[in-house]
Structure formats: structure tokens, C-alpha cells
Amino acid sequence: MAKVALLALGGCISNEDLDMAKPYEYVCAADSGSDRLKSFNIIPDLVIGDLDSVTPEGLKWAISKGAQVKEFPKDKDSTDAELACFELSSLGFDLIKIVGIQGLSMDRPDHMLFNYTLFGLEESLNLRIIGYSGGFEILAHQGVKNYFSKPGMIVSVMPFFGQASIKLEGLKWSFEGLITINKSRTISNIALGDFKIWSNQKILVFIQHTKSLVS
Predict the structure, then answer these.
(1) How many domains does the chain have?
(2) Helix (H), strand (E) at residue 189
(3) Same domain, 170 and 95
(4) Given 70, 101, 134, which residue is the final one in a domain?
(5) How far apart are the first and last CA of the chain?
(6) Average pLDDT, whole number, for the chain?
(7) Main-chain phi, psi angles of 150, to 5 degrees
(8) Count H helices, E strands: the chain?
(9) Looking at residue 120, what is its pLDDT?
């Protein structure tokens, strides 16, 4: 049975995202992720990072609730989110469910975009990563897989890690061929129900689950 951890980053988190992420057995906050968890009264088991963005109140609250704190120097070669993934891997977790991927504001778009590269750690850390943001489930995909979805939900496929040959079935617009990062052909497709994706390379798949959160 998979050993599952919730990882909270410092971005936007909704009740819907947290509901989709259940169940999990361990909670980790990367830096200001502790503040985000505090707003939902979800107690982290671990707060990790250089602690340059968490508020004193958010950190004090986590410590008062029994959270372990693992602090790193500000001059480091990894982001706080990466450090959290490394730590959770070392603790033996098989699946990391990430919330707070999208930033609270656009002052650090670099951080927001880099969060999606975390899915590239799956092979080196020998685990799976699933993201939840704005009513969407975000997964890395390679090979062939059937996905479960309600009709009418948005499905987007992104060749985030480089070009890929893919085939889509069960979506409003079927597709078979090569996709590249500079083409938008596979964005905002619509599920007809359950669907299937083939891909010869790693891609990101975004599946809408909470329609009310998306305009």
C-alpha cells in the first residue's frame, strides 16, 4: 500500500484542492506553506526550507502544534519545494500530493513555473507526484493510461519536458501526432467521459474535477 504525504507550498490553496488530495498520512509544509496550512487548521508534521517567507506567526503556530522544523541556509542549490520532495523521499513516501502550486501573486512567476518541474523528480526519487490546483488534478504521464472523468470537464496536455508523440481518445477533439511546447493544440480539450492517453515521452496532464472553480 502506498505511503502518502501532503506537501503544501506557499501558493493558493482551496478547500476543494485539499478535499481532492485526501487521503494522506503525513503533512509537510515548504516554508510559507505553513501559513497556508494554518488558515485551514491543518497541522504540519514537518516545516522545511530556508524559512525566509513563512511568517513568525505561522512558524510559531506549527511548532506549538508539535511540528518538526528543518531549516536550511538561504544560499542553497535547491528550492524549498525540492528540499521537501527530497526529504519525503528519504522518509519512504511513495506518493506526494502537492497543493499551493500556483502563486498567491505574480511577483515571483519564476517560482510558480518552476514548481511544475517537480514532476520531473519522480524517476530519480522513485515516487509519484500529483498536484491539485484550482479544481484541477495535475499528473505526469508516460505510456498508456485510462483516466476517469465526468463529461464536460477540461483536459489539457502539455509537453512540459520536451516534444512528445501522443494519441488522445475519448475527448471532444481526438488527436494523434507530435506535440511541442510552442503549440497549443492540446490545451482546453473537453472530456466526453472516461478517456485514454498514449505518450512516448513524459508529459503533464491537467484534469478538471471541480467545475465551479474554473471560468
Answers:
(1) 2
(2) strand 189-208
(3) no
(4) 134
(5) 37
(6) 92
(7) -80, 150
(8) 6, 11
(9) 95
Q: What is the pLDDT of residue 190?
A: 96
Which residues, 6+ apart, have CB-to-CB distance to 201 below 8 Å?
142, 159, 161, 162, 163, 164, 165
193 Rama class: left (phi>0) / alpha (psi -120 to 50) / beta? left
Contacts of 111 (CB under 8 A, 6+ apart): 79, 103
Are 30 and 9 in contact, with CB atoms under 8 Å apart? yes
Note the pLDDT tens digit of each residue in 164-188. Answer: 999 999 999 999 999 998 888 899 9
- Cα–Cα distance measured from residue 119 to residue 129, given in angstroms and rounded to the nearest whole number: 6
CATH assignment of the domain containing 74? 3.40.50.10240
Given 65, 99, 134, the domain boundary residue is 134
pLDDT per residue as tens digits for the range 113-169: 889 999 999 999 999 999 999 899 999 999 999 998 889 999 999 999 999 999 999
97 and 85, same domain (yes or no): yes
Question: Taking CA 104 as the corner, what is the angle to CA 99 and CA 108, rounded to the nearest 5 degrees?
Answer: 105
- DSSP H/E element including 111: helix 109-115
Name the pLDDT band for 107 (thresholds 50, 70, 90). low
Give the C-alpha separation, 115 to 125, whole Å.
16
* Domain coverage including residue 69: 4-134
The verdict on 92 and 151 lying in the same domain is no
pLDDT at 12 over 70: yes
Report how far residue 189's alpha carbon sits from residue 38's, in angstroms, rounded to the nearest whole number: 36
